[in-house]
Amino acid sequence: MDNRSDGLIDKVWDIFSSMKTGLVLLGLVAIVSAIGTLIPQESLDPEGARAVSEIWRTLGFTRVYNSPVFQFLLGLLCINLIVCSVQRFGGIYKMTYKPEPIQEQAKLPQKVKATVTGSQAEELKQKTLALFKKKGFHVTELEKEGKWCFTAQKHRSGNWGSFVTHIAFVILILGALIGSLSGFKGYMMASEGSVVPIQEIEISKGKVQENFMVRINSVEDRILPTGERDNWYTNLSIIESGVEVLQGTLSVNHPLTYKGVTFYQSSYATGALFNLEVEGKEYTIPLHNGGIYNPPGTHLYLVLAGMKTGAENSVILYQLYNEKSQIGMGQLTSGESDTIDDTYKLTFDKAIAFTGLQVKKDPGVWVVWLGSALLMVGLVLCFYWRPVRIAGILETKEDHEARLDLGAHTGKLYTGIKEEFEKLIEELKE
Fold it and tell me: Are 303 and 292 in contact, with CB atoms under 8 Å apart?
């Protein structure tokens, strides 16, 4: 590799290892996220997104979280965090496990310091070692040029708090990208008895790679004897290659999962099963209350405008349109038919129930959970397991007096470190 290539790699490394780069990327991610918060997103609020001005939808502001730009920014931020973590690893490892004792008094920490004297250097050394080990410190020693130098550390693993936190954010970003790139989120409204190909559900995010069928066996809005609603229940079967491979019942807060695809009970609706005869062709039409259906190959639109269910008979209000105007409207009870425009025959067969299911596949969810767990570990290390580092130099002066100079690395923890340091000095002086 020539010098120009080496220089380019160094420049790219310097860019991604810069804190300024990280702050800029965080700012851009925050701006894009703010847009996604203020403007309804198709994946979260489809109806709200459709109501947004056409210009914002054209610019992609209603799908910012799934946009290549947002994913690219997350990728760059992930690279920045990885490079910064790699660059800091060596220093943290050395400080934690292979610290080098300070050998000059001028380099001892000056903010929190003290001096302890004694008549015998060896006695003061042993007393210092015994005290620090008693208090849980790990001591690294060095004898050089008549000096005894040491670094004492307690809660050494706390040095890794910020590092673990950075790695946690990397894993969280990777989990989000995995879910966004290889997962999907969709919705299906289906009647009991219907069979829906998973490929035909309404997708709001991602793309469906699976190829199985979902059969809705039964739908129930269960009411308790007290008159209170128990829950909505859907019993469904997964059919793959013509074979039922799974059957189960789901309800609100009790989803059902097959091959990573999870079905969540979202809504329930009453509906009707119609039979429509058009020019010798018959169409069986399940339609939920308020729903619209266009029979394939026709210019007709059937609307279930209203419905009232009863113990014996149900009553519906329908409307039938062609491309230009309404051509029929009426009220039917179960089993009743209407002839419309002397051309079409509409029969209300029976009342049926519809289930609304959220369908989701997120292969990155376990990665997100891992990142969340690591984030908690990092925060605990940062805030509840803060490291304490004290450096000291012991030497014998010309008057044969042993002098021990100590200093504590405080960082942002001045008050807490100072209090612990002063207690140690008091015990040393006793």
Answer: yes
User: The pTM is what?
Assistant: 0.72
Sign of CA dihedral 425, 426, 429, 430: negative
Cα separation, 191 vs 174, whole angstroms: 38
AA letter at 77: L
The closest of 79, 171, 115 to 392, measured between CA atoms, is 115
Instruction: For residue range 285-335, list pLDDT tens digits in order.
Output: 999 988 999 988 888 999 999 999 876 788 999 999 988 899 999 999 999
Quote the CA–CA distance of 377 and 244 in Å, as a whole number. Answer: 44
Tokens representing residue 417 in the block: 């470190």
Q: What is the rounded distance in angstroms from the CA atom of residue 425 to the CA atom of residue 392?
A: 12
Distance from C-alpha of 429 to C-alpha of 255, rounded to nearest angstrom: 66
Which residues face 196 on adjacent strands? 214
Hey, what are 115's tokens? 């001096």
CB count in 10 Å sphere of residue 64: 21
Distance of CA 408 to the CA centre of its chain: 40
179/198 Cα distance (integer angstroms): 18
